[in-house]
């Protein structure tokens, strides 16, 4: 025997479900809006980028300013710039190689060294000024100069940041000067006209800290 639900009960059930459905839609809309706001704050991703870089993967370089805090050890805690040789000096820990390390790996090394003098030191390293992660662009652009290097920036991003080209810029003869680990430098040619067509993503060269873009 099939039981029937009175029409009044169905109507009441519909009224009860309507606010729940509206709440679910509202939550979904809020989630989507939050994702859009996050994307806007993050900025446009470079071609082929799939995820945000992990902040812990930042590589410290010369001229960066580090805030080093050792919990309850004010005599050891301090703000230290990374010297041109890539090192910092801390009481008890001595000279430490900072350039090429991430904040997390540097924390571990400082804690290891201080562990000989302090019981289980809790170390925090924060990059206060990321001075080493910059690039230069000179020549026939509207705003030549030195700029902060964001995550996954390319030559096209740099040209846009510098305001574009001057009238007589030779866009097929652009090149990037890149420093090598042992002090030498290499010259990398860049063809703007081919890169801007977007046929091949690898033609838009990704920048590295210290790169100098020269626009004849």
The total of helices stands at 4
* Overall form: elongated
Alpha carbon gap, first and last residue: 89 Å
Count the strands? Answer: 10
Encode the helix/strand succession as letters. HEEEEHEEEHEEHE
Largest sheet: 5 strands, mixed
If you average the pLDDT, what whole number results?
A: 79
| Computed CA radius of gyration, to the nearest angstrom | 27 Å
Strand order across the biggest sheet?
A: 7-6-10-8-9
Runs in which pLDDT lies below 50 for 5 or more consecutive residues are 5-56
Key features of this structure:
elongated; 24% strand; 216 residues; 4 helices; 5-stranded mixed sheet; alpha+beta; 3-stranded antiparallel sheet
Describe this structure in words.
By secondary structure, the chain is of the alpha+beta class. It is built from four helices and ten strands, in the order αββββαβββαββαβ. Strands 7-6-10-8-9 form a five-stranded mixed sheet, with helices on one face. A three-stranded antiparallel sheet has the order 2-1-5, covered by helices on one side. The chain has a two-stranded antiparallel sheet with strand order 3-4. A hairpin with a 7-residue loop joins strand 1 (65-70) and strand 2.
């Amino acid at each position: 025997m099939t039981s029937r639900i009175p029409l009044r009960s169905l109507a009441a059930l519909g009224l009860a479900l309507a606010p729940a459905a509206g709440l679910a839609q509202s939550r979904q809309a809020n989630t989507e809006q939050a994702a859009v706001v996050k994307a806007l704050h993050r900025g446009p991703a470079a071609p082929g980028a799939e995820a945000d870089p992990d902040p812990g993967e930042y590589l410290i370089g010369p001229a960066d300013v580090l805030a080093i805090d050792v919990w309850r050890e004010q005599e050891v805690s301090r703000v230290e710039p990374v010297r041109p040789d890539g090192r910092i000096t801390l009481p008890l820990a001595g000279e430490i190689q900072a350039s090429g390390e991430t904040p997390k790996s540097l924390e571990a090394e400082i804690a290891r060294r201080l562990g000989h003098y302090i019981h289980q030191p809790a170390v925090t390293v924060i990059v206060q000024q990321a001075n080493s992660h910059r690039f230069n662009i000179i020549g026939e652009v509207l705003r030549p100069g030195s700029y902060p290097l964001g995550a996954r920036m390319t030559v096209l991003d740099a040209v846009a940041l510098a305001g574009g080209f001057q009238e007589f810029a030779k866009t097929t003869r652009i090149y990037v000067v890149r420093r090598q680990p042992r002090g030498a430098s290499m010259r990398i040619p860049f063809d703007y006209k081919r890169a801007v067509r977007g046929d091949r993503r690898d033609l838009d060269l990704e920048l590295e800290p210290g790169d100098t873009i020269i626009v004849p």
